[in-house]
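Much of our argument rests on the idea that a fold can be written as discrete symbols. The amino acid sequence and the backbone structure tokens for this protein are reproduced below:

___
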Amino acid sequence: MDATDSNETREPGLVQRIWQRRGLVAAVLGGVLVLTVIALLVLPVRYLATGSVIVAEQELGNNSTSAAWAQKIGDPADLESQLLVIRSPRVMRLAMALPGVLDAAVADCRAARGGSICDRMQTDSADFVDYVQNRYAIGAVGRSRVINISYQSSIPEVAQTMANALTNAFLEDQRAAGSNSREVAASWLRKELAQLDTQLRDADAKIQAFRRNKGLARGATAPISSERLTSISQQLSVAEAARADAAARLQEIKANQSRGASDAPSVLSSRAVADLKQQLTVVSAQPASQSNVLGPRHPALRALERERDLVQQRLTAEIASIAASAQKTYDANDALVTSLRKQVDAVKAEVGSATTDEASIESMVRDTEIKRQQYAELYKRTSELETERRVLLGSTRLVSLAELPNKPFFPKKIPFLAAGGTIGLLLALAAVLFGDRLKPAAAWLPTRPALPRKAAPVAATPAVAVAPPAAASAIAAPAKPAAPLPAIPAPAAAPPLSPAAAPTPPPVTAAVAKPVATPVERATELSVVTGASILARLPVIANDVPESPISAILAGQSGLSLVRSLSVAQQDPAYQAALRDLAAGLAVGAKAGACQKILMTAPGAGEGKTFLTLALAQHLAIAGRKVLAVECDLRTPRFEAALALAGGRGLQAVLLGDAQPGDVVVRTSIPNLDVIAAGPASSQFDLLRRRQMSDLLLWSQSYEVVLVDGPIPAVLMDVGVLARQVDGVLLSMRAGSFSIGEAVATTSAIKAAGGKVLGIAMTMMKPDASARPAEPAVDAYLRAT
């Protein structure tokens, strides 16, 4: 038995077992979902209202934080004690006393179950507590100091009323507990204030009476006697200074008189003396000048001498008058100094006698001030306690009251259905496993008809040539533009046969009268309707064998990364052979010395366009061609990630005129291969229509091959502009998932824009795609098990 036969008889995997029992799975899952929907309709709807409080917070009006308070904040024991207080029957009864609470609880009881307990709740508080305690949910929120108080009820208004009632009752209880202690403290402080006020009034009266008896009147800043002593002492100092000044002047004048001079400062300061001295100078000068002309006894000379003597007499008399005035000033100041000295001595004696009395008064005043400070402190503390009592919230304050619930808390539709679906899937899986034990899985393995050793082509299908075994499972021989339709490979299990040696096929029965079209047949149809030849069929890049079935499914869905795929493609002989066929179909290097520019595009995303561009560029570069790969897909650039290039603006900088083409060219690790990455993703799709793009293609004439990774035809204008500037366009289309309509629209748009379609490259061809349709994802799972 060959490999195909052994593959058909192996044990099926879990996914295939579920698929084979899909009817049972659907029945179980549907039944559970129906029961879930019925439960949603039958179960009573309950609403949840939640209020929140926060405990162990700093109280308003209390700015002092003690060590005990700091330890209390965040203490789990304190938080647990608050939870016990809220759950206590005492607080429940406080909530019961609030208006409307008892009526709401009775209405909730009658709506839920009814009975005599609902009537007893109106008179018996114990029944009320027993009923509501089971419906309250009280707990801390995570590791915070917030406590949620919730109540469940079938009536939204009742849930809100009951939750808010317990919240308000707890806050009021906390506030009342703190208020009572402050009221007691404030009452004691008021009594102390009254006693201090009486003592202060008596002490002030005693001080005033003592002052009156002792005559200790006070001035502006000190006692009257002290102020008088200060004033007289200041006057004495002024008088002594004036007397000293007068004595100095008098002594100076007398000294000048004794010398017959008149140059004392006090004398010269007199205006009369100054005028007389000036006249004396003038009169004294005339006799001296006339004595040379007149004789010593001349009458005129005698008259001048008499006039000089008169002026001298007047000057002497004026100086004597100044000396007498200075003497009087000195005598007056001396008498004033003597009088002030007597007054100072008298006031000193008076101040000395009052000092003892002032010391006694100061002692009394000091005691009074101490009591006055005590009175002020007690009065301030009393005011603070009264303020705290009025605004007190206690160590607990309200975060939020419960809002009216508008959505049911139970049952919730989406979580309920999700839980029902999960339970249904688990029950369905259990049913499948239990069914496998009753019926062996081999009895319902997928029936795959055994392929004959020598398969003949189906009737009405032209004879084909089969590729050699090394490449038959990977790709078919590429079709040249002028060659007939591409050959269809034989089934994977058949040995290589020539057309002449193929046996005569058996008659076609009704079961195979209408065979399913294989991917190769669809590719042939694609070539006919688009008028473009299938230049190559590139096989899918094989991944390493996954380690688990789940890895196989994930690998089948996501595929290899672009970096890993390029590395694997270089080592894959089948893929390199397909690239050689593609290069031959594109006539790369047909014209020596000429630069061949090829635009790579695809009808849509996910067709392998970028990977084919890089793989072909690497293949041609390794073959000795000087290749430049230009990434023009500005929407989803991938060159940098695929080739591990450093980030930069790349082609965008050239199109914006910020750089020259030579500045953005990056030389890869593969000799002869240069690339120009697109740069970061951009939404400026009109960049490719600028003149800089034409200049770049003109600059690239130094390369033998320029591969342009163009955008997908979602932007037909960009594809048309690029198609007119290159030698031809190669379409990349994924085998098994392409749309013939999209391919026709793309080729028509390229031709309408003036471009030339070189052909189509079929990518990701499965090795046995020519023998049977593509396998579902379950087969990928089975191959991995």
Notes: Residues 356 and 421 are 104 Å apart (CA to CA). The domain at 533-784 is CATH 3.40.50.300 (Rossmann fold). The mean pLDDT is 74.
